[in-house]
Design brief:
Structural class: mainly alpha
Number of helices: 7
Largest sheet: 2 strands, antiparallel
Radius of gyration: 34 Å
Strand order of the largest sheet: 1-2
Strand content: under 5%
Oligomer: single chain
Amino acid sequence: EPIEARILSKAIENAQKRVESDHFAVRRNVLKFDDVINKQREVIYGERRKVLDNENLKDSVFNMADKTFGRIIAAYAGDKFPDYWQWDELNANISKIMTLEAPIAYEKKELERLNSDFLKEDIMKIFAQNYEKQEEVFGDNMREAERVIMLQVVDRHWMQHIDDMDQLREGIGLRSYAQHDPIVEYQTVGYDMFEELISTIQDETVKYLLHVRPTAKATERKQIATVTNEGESKEKPVVRAEKKVGRNDLCPCGSGKKYKQCCGHNE
C-alpha cells in the first residue's frame, strides 16, 4: 500500500529540493570556471584571426616590441634617476632579443636629461635597424615569415596554457580551507597566468623574427605520370620483375613437387 504519511512526504520533498539545489550550485560553479577560459579563448582566437586576415603585420610586430622593451625598462630602469639603473642587466636582456653592436650607454651630460621614455625611443630605433636588415634578407617573404612565426608561437603557448589552467582548476578547491572562494581565486590566478602568456608570446615573437633565417626548399616534386600528345595523363604500367609461378608448375625451391603442394600451399 502507498505510504500517505504527510510528515514522510514532506521530508522526502525537502530532501529532493536540497539535492536539486546542490546540483544547480555545482552546475553554476562549473559554468563560472568555464567562463574564465572561454573569455581567454575569445581573445586568443580574435588575435589569431587578425594574423590570418592581415597581409602586413609589421605594425603589430613593432607594437609587440614596444611592450617587450617597455617591460625590460620597467624591470631594470624603473628608477627615476638613471644613475641607479641596472645597466648590465638591461643590456643583457635586450641582447637576448636583438643584436647590439655596442652596449647601450650615455655620457654624463646625456644622463641628466635621460628618462625611461627617451631610453625606449632609442631602443626602438635600434630595433627598427635590426628589423630592416631582416627585411633585406627575406625580401618579399618577410610578411609570410611574420605570419608563420606568430601563429606557431601563439599555438604552442596557448596549448600549454590550457594544460596549466586545467591543473590549476584541479587544485584550486583546496583554497576553500583557507576561507578563500575557489572561483574568485581561479579568476584571479587565471588572469595573472593569461597576462604572462601574452607577454611570453610578444617576447618570443619579436625575438624569433630577429633571429630566424630563410632556408631553401629541400624537397623536389617528382613526375609520376607521363603526358600523351592528346594532353591526357597516362600512368606508367607496373612491370613485374620476375615471372609468376603457376600453381601446377614445379616449385622453384627444387623440391620436385608442384608449386601448389609446396611453397604455394598457403596461397
